[in-house]
Each structure stands twice: as structure tokens, then as C-alpha cells.
Amino acid sequence: MFDRELLLRIELAGVAAWPALETAAFDGWLWRFSDGGSQRANSVSTLDYRGSDVEASIDEAERRYALRGAPPMFQVSDISMPGDLDGRLARRGYRVNDPCSTLVKPCEPQPADAGVVYLDRASAAWFDCYASVITPSRRRTAPRILERVPQAGVFCGLVQDGRIIATVLGVPRDGVIIAECVATLSQARGRGAASRVMRGLEGWGAVRGCRHVALQAVVSNVAAQALYKSLGYREHGRYHLRVKD
Known about the structure:
- By secondary structure, the protein is an alpha+beta fold.
- It folds into two domains: 4-100, no CATH class; 105-237, Aminopeptidase.
- 32% of the residues lie in helices and 31% in strands.
- It contains seven helices and eleven strands.
- It has helices spanning 4-17, 54-67, 85-91, 124-131, 136-147, 193-207, 222-230; strands at residues 22-26, 29-33, 44-45, 73-77, 95-106, 116-119, 154-160, 163-173, 176-184, 212-218, 234-243.
- The strands form two sheets. Strands 3-4-11-5-10-9-8-7-6 form a nine-stranded mixed beta sheet, with helices on both faces. It has a two-stranded antiparallel sheet with strand order 1-2.
- β3, α2 (54-67) and β4 (73-77) form a beta-alpha-beta unit.
- It is globular, with a radius of gyration of 18 Å.
- The N and C termini lie far apart (37 Å).
């Protein structure tokens, strides 16, 4: 059964876990800008709406992005407000980009893994592993976003032969721990590295009282979807980006 309250907590935790470099709250929405790279950190979060004129609110978001020389983008989920936002954006010429699924599982204790390390902040070795799987534009922006991650977060890495070969960032909020920055070095794939670091994060969250662990993955990424399914994650909602070129 669809649990709207849980999905809202997950979505809000996701916003907090990957903080944009610049934000502005208006009419219940959160406008986000990070000078390229991450799409979520350069889109409007639409989990609440308190305005009286939706079209005027969209105009305001577009105005703000125009001032930054960036295309306007909205993150539209199953619980976006108002409920007809997706249709309004479509009629204004916004296209759908990168449909994603919100995946969740109960956060449960895990056996200790001596290969998993837990860092307060992203070390150079941790970032090098994560950066190996992202685009150049994301590599440029990611360090500044990672510096803004809440202090409660943890940077997990799987170490092999003195080198970090897999990463995940976990940020707990309101009983949910959000997983971000899941990455494995190309030469280490297919050997269970991602599963080990993900279990390490889940165990860390369980010890700290988190009831659910959640992440958001591109629907078309078949390998990632298969990995998360094997770990017990199940889809609890979807979102996509609407962008106007």
C-alpha cells in the first residue's frame, strides 16, 4: 500500500542530503541552483505549494534560472504540489528527463565488515572513487555540494589493498537514511563491492535508530536497479525532471 507520509519523509531527506549551492523558498517550493552538474541540485523541489497562482510561480522560477543563464527545471514526484503541476509544465513545453524510482527497505542491523570504513567527510581517496563514475560537469560541482552535506552524514568506503574501491554517502533524517554517491571503480565491479558498502551503510543507520534506508535511481539503469533489488529495496514512488530547453 502506498505510504504518502513515508514518501514525503524520504523526499525531504533527499533534499537535505544533497544540498544545492544556492536556494530560494517561495510559494512553498524550493528553487535550487548549483551552477550545472547535478540535476536535482539545479531544479525546483515541489513537495509543497502555498501560492495562489501556479502559473505565476512557474514564471518566478523561470525568471530566477534565466538570471543564472540556466534552463528552468522542476523535480516532479508522485507527491508534488499542486497535483496538476506536471501537466502544466508539459503544456509550457517542458520535456521529461531521467525518470527515477524511489527505492526503500527497512533499515536492519548488518554483520560487521572490516573492509568498510566510515568517514566524517569525503577524503581525497573517497572522492576519487566516486568521481570515476560521474560526468566532468558533476565532478566540477560535486566537491562544493559535498562540503555542504549535513554533519550527521557518513561517507562509507570499501577498502581493498589500501584503496577505496566503492563508495556511498549516507545522510540520516527523520528516521530515514538516504544513500547517495553509490560508486564502484570499474576494475572492481561484479565482485560484490557495492553490496558490501551498501550493507555497511545500512548497518550504520540501524545502529543510529533509522527505520528505513532509501535511495533514488534512474529507471533505465538496469544494473543499478538489479543491484538494489537483490539487496531488498522495493520501489515506493517515482519522480522525473521536467526541463525547458
